[in-house]
Amino acid sequence: MKLEEIEAVKQIDIESIVELHRKLILDGACCLRFGQYFYRELEDSSVEIIATQCNMADVQNYDIQLPTIISIKLDSDGIITDAELDRTFKGSQGIPCAYKFLARNLKEKTVGKKLEPNAVFLTDQFALCCRHVFELMFGACMLYREARQQQRSEYRIRELTQAVLKDDKLVVDDSIIVNGTIDRNRVIFNSFANHITYDKDGFVVKLEDIKASFFKWDESSESFECYDKELLTARTHKEFIMSLMKLLSVPWMAQKNNVGFRNKFYCSQLWPPTLIGIVVQAFGITTFHNNYEYFMQCIAGLQRDESGKPLCVGIIRNLEEAKKHFPGLDRSDLW
User: Fold this and answer.
1) CA–CA separation, 69 vs 50, rounded Å?
2) What distance in Å separates the CA atoms of residue 150 and residue 300, rounded to the nearest whole number?
3) CA-to-CA distance for 253 and 245, rounded, in angstroms?
4) In 3-state terms, the chain is what percent helix, strand and coil (to 5)?
5) Could you write out the DSSP letters of every residue in 217-251?
6) How many C-beta neighbours within 10 Å does residue 229 have?
7) Which of 94, 206, 278, 300 is the most exposed place for a label (fewest CB within 10 A)?
8) How far apart are CA 310 and CA 209, in angstroms?
């Protein structure tokens, strides 16, 4: 489905979102992410926010779909009165991405707290125990701030990010609609397949002169125009992340200005920490020819820091590691 077709679906509730996720197809992409944010102010001045993302990947000719849907309710002062992780949640690591634990932890960490950028559950990226949940809560926070500052009773964001292999190029296309305003961006990585080195833990530890270009959609010519170019080189995993952050911050900032978002646009999938995840998945899928084991190894490289500490509950190797880093997780949460 194209984003314009998705935008034609006006109904906003969990049931319609789940149905929309079911209709998503890769359509030649190696992976994609479809994200949505809906803000609505009610008559009693309380607020409802729905934040969603649905990740898809082509792994060994099987389309994997991993949805995350969060419903948030706030009082008139911005205090969270409820935060619900929908039961359709699926994490990339299967059973260890324990829905029961993550849903309980989300409520415990957020209910009764103000939805603001300096909230502990947002300043500590480990607090919510899942990168997807963290990204959606951070995005919801900035959406809430933006809607209040603009004095809007409703705010809608829908975004589709797709990575497609074309010859020796990885083409990442992003389309976003913010309250009816459309913005399109493209990032191309040229001849990358033989220029990336991974270590045994799935970390990218070396890049060799990958040409990357950023394109913006030009309405007058109805085509993409080159806006910026970079030559990506890295000798360590940290250098790899920093080089991508530098490149991807350009389209992120351009997108924010084009859709009139005043605050930091953390509810965008072009936010570099989010887009890096999509790009690294695409690198892994295309480099290792859709092989499931190699793909999961590349994902693991995103889900641990360089010291080996797990960044989310799904990557735990055993219950002993879970007890050390995620003390609220119980064996019963896995089943």
Assistant:
1) 7
2) 40
3) 12
4) 35, 35, 35
5) EETTTTEEEEEEEEEEEESSHHHHHHHHHHHHHHH
6) 11
7) 94
8) 30
Q: Which two tokens stand for residue 167?
A: 């010859």
pLDDT digits (tens, 9 = 90+) for 105-149: 999 999 999 999 999 999 998 899 999 999 999 999 999 999 999
Among residues 179, 161, 128, 217, the alpha carbon closest in space to that of 35 is found at 161
Q: What angle do CA 277, 142, 283 make, to 5 degrees?
A: 10
Please write down the long-range contacts of 243-246, taking CB distance under 8 Å and 24 or more positions apart: 243/207, 244/272, 244/276, 244/279, 245/272, 245/273, 245/276
Q: What is the pTM of this model?
A: 0.94
Residue with tokens 């309980």: 104
Report the C-alpha gap between 268 and 240 in whole angstroms.
22
- Phi, psi of 39, deg, nearest 5: -120, 135
Can you tell me the distance from the alpha carbon of 202 to that of 27, in angstroms, rounded to the nearest whole number?
A: 27
Using alpha carbons only, what angle is made at residue 140 by residues 109 and 333, rounded to the nearest 5 degrees? 40
Would you place residue 290 in the very low, low, confident or very high pLDDT band (cuts 50, 70, 90)?
confident
Helix ranges restricted to H, the chain: 3-7, 14-23, 99-110, 120-123, 131-149, 237-258, 272-287, 292-303, 319-325
- Dihedral sign, CA of 242, 244, 246, 248? negative
